[in-house]
Write a structure and sequence with these properties.
- The chain is α/β, with parallel strands linked by helices and about 260 residues long.
- It has a domain at about 1-75 and about 205-255: P-loop containing nucleotide triphosphate hydrolases (Rossmann fold).
- The chain has helices spanning about 50-55, 80-85, 100-105, 105-110, 115-130, 145-160, 175-195, 205-210, 230, 235-245; strands spanning about 10-20, 25-35, 40, 65-70, 70-75, 85-90, 165-170, 195-200, 215-220, 220-225.
- The strands form two sheets. Strands 6-7-8-3-9-10 form a six-stranded mixed beta sheet, with helices on both faces.
- Helix 5 (about 115-130) packs across helix 6.
Amino acid sequence: MTASLSHDLAIEFDRVSFRLNGRRLLDDLALSVKTGETLVLLGRSGSGKTTALKLINRLLLPTSGEVRVNGRRTTDWDPIQLRRSIGYVIQDGGLFPHFTVERNIAVVPQIENWPRARIAARVEELLSTVGLSKDLSSRYPRQLSGGQRQRVGVARALAADPPILILDEPFGALDPITRSEMQKEFRALQQRLHKAVIFVTHDLREALLLADRIALMEEGRLIVDLPVEECSRSRHPLLRAYIEAFSGLPHPLPEPE
């Protein structure tokens, strides 16, 4: 694939490999995400999912191949400018413990020198968007529940309206009820905002609920890349193993919409 294939490709992995201490963590990865599309990277721990995310925002550089963001190689971006254009969400929100909720959400707008009134309005808007009361704005992360911290993390990622969101198992540490609520809220949010999203998980239920496409990874390789509605019909043995493992649980897998 080349950068000129489509102007609406927000993220492209062009035969990307990454080695660390002689170990290949990613092997010849070829993958792309369009604006408005949610791609779920599915796989076990150590399959290369988080490594792929870190290559997108230039926390890592590829050993070979190219990663492109909006048609431009990550190595050609200023790292700070690149990271400000990408919302990044991790487990438990990754909040600054010594900042209030308001300051956590406002980090990037403040760096971008937004006027104070605009920042305040944006914080209030985002608290409402993620289902939190504006009364929480003066609290610190330690004073919030896990679900509240995760919502603040999503709000912070959205604060400067970045075109790309990357999420690394953001709901994995939540209790089942809160996790289900966050999944539904995130899906509704994406339907409104139409970001380019890469969402990392090892949970097939979560993948089927949130994804437009699912990319299954194993030992640094891309195994399957399919629209979500085709996954249940795939005969690939590793994907079948995932489906059969989850189908054996008490609650059936969600039907793709």
